[in-house]
Amino acid sequence: MEVSQRTVFREISSINRALKDKQIKISVKNAALVLAAGGEEQKETLRQMLGNVPKRLLLTPKQRILFITAQLLLADEPYKSTFFSFQLNVAEATVSLYMDSIEQWLKGKNLTLSRKRRYGIRIEGSEWNRRNALVTLIYEYKPVEELLPYIYETKKDPVLHSFFRLLFGDRILKISKEVMALIPEESNDDVPYLTLLFHTMISIQKIVAGHPISLPDEFIREAVSANSFHFDEKLKQLLLEREIPAVESEIAYISIHLPSGCLYDTDQKFRDLDVTVSKLAEEVLYEVRKGLGIDLAEDSQVIAGLSHYFNLAIYRINMGIQVKNSLLDQVREHYGTLFQTVEIACKLVFSKYNIRLSQDEIGFITMNIGAALEAKEDRNKSVSVLIICPNGLFASRILLNKVQSVVRNIERIDLASLKDWSESNCEQYDLILSTVELDAKTGRENMLVVSPFLSDDDIARINSRVAMIRKRASGGIRKRAPAVRTIPAKADDLAMIHRMIEGLCVQTVPAEPFEAVVGRITAELAERGTVADWHEISALILKREKIGSVVIPGTRVSLLHIRSDSVFSPFVGVYRLQGEIMMDGVGFVQEPVDTYLLMLARSSESSVVLEKMGDISISLIENKDFPERLRKSSLGELRKIFENLLLETKEERG
Predict the structure, then answer these.
(1) Does residue 258 form part of some domain?
(2) Same structural domain for residues 473 and 501?
(3) pTM to 2 decimals?
(4) Which of 163, 182, 379, 529 makes a 20 to 30 Å CA pair with 236?
């Protein structure tokens, strides 16, 4: 409850004084509250007294903050601080402190908190971001393992019941579950089910309130026609039967959150830019190999699995759809170095395309790669086995054949009689299987007594012991020390990087429509001999912008990066507008842009140069000062910044 032990005992003393005339006493035993005095009659009296306490008054300070935030995110009108003070029975000064915390939390969600004395309190930002933030908040309010039993109605939770009831009401939760029943059962994994349910509840609440989301007509048409089981028609019918308007934009909103709700083939769109998702998968695996010294580039199954995942992840990111990985903390702990390596690899590869993977997405990618690496290690680790069978040659052969069929990758397997056996001879074997008890002076954990015919229990024990032996031998992927990531740059690469810095371009151009700005910039690049065909470069940049947002949120800077054989040499340019233009951000948000960072590379560019360009992209996303320097620093100052990024190692930069 986020209070000290002293406070708890002080409150218990106060409660006991208040309950003294009821002959009831509460005490603490084994870290739990127990009824120290009073029979069944007194228990029932206490139960009735507590039943009248509003559940919202039992919230922890963190839950109060989240509860207030949830109401603000759902609201279409401002709230007064006095409302929350009365609702939660706290002082207005406390509400003000809560608002400070809420304001900080919202910054990471591209939202702001407006607090005006006469107007009230309101969250400002796009409806899309508000809804995503609310779903994130619900997962913070209670963990998945507590949300699922409540939603599935297998366990009562008064705090959650009060939370959902006050925000949405019982009817909307009931109708939302009916919507979920329209989805094929094979699509209903627990966490995606929860996420879709929450988005559905928000959507229906907004329809009922008369404030549906506004989405582009073309997107609505694509969304409602994307599913293969006529979900939109079934949803319309259900809503109308429940006397709820079937708003097209909200039907599209729910549809894109379906488990199979990917609206287009991301790979095809990236292929237009001469980059496929399979190529992105290969680049990520290449960076992982550099980081850990393990190569999976030849594993077609791993590449296919990552390509499929990237296809969905890129779509989600461009649409502003969030994914929840309930195992994220366990993935970080289990894989350790691998998680860090995958995170760095994804930053280097995807930042060039202004694609920023969340920690949840990186967790899923780590699980994918980790499983493949562990399977590879398991296949490569051989074991040696000694079989001791005093039951004759035939029994020995039967057991030997059984073991060879059960245990993969046996390096050596020998037979020995009970007479020949000695403990000293066993040191050279990983596993000893005997059909009789052995008189070992010391307990050997690699000795197992089995039947010559290997029962199911014998097979399970052997597999478990072999897995333990192999795990001990390798230390596991998660304990692997990171390899040195820096690739020694060849002379040609260094010369190319120096020319890129020397050729850095900083120009001011008119604030025209995006297509006109791109045409002006690329035509000028053709005149200076940077590209061969400016029409092709211009078309590639425009195609990239169609795939998803190229705007760095909240910076007024847009990242334009493409690869083409029409590029003669790697190029970096900074173009500042005489004014600003509005461009599509993530999730149908319009953002002002006054500066473009353009990076061009050849299709066959060296991995060293591409990694350096990745460093620029990462800095643009993670270094809060860098976008501002791009907007305002002189050419000389920017050259020094790029020299630091491109020529110094990460250790030298600190």
Answers:
(1) no
(2) no
(3) 0.70
(4) 163
